[in-house]
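Bumping with the actual sequence this time:
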Amino acid sequence: MSQILPLPRIDVSAYHGEDGSVTYDVELIRHEGQDGFDVLATFGDADAAEAFIEKYMGDHPEGGG
């Protein structure tokens, strides 16, 4: 059974480039479905993406934090 997470929430999408690089998009999911998210930031480093998420969640406890 899959778990439905409350909205809004933060997700990270990782995209692998042909050159072996990885790009991380930090997304705020507002609702399920098409156009239901905003990309808050893009990083080339997983640690930087994680630090951004921690700061964002601390700054926005009412929405995604």
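The tokens above came from a reply further down the thread. The longest strand covers residues 9-16.
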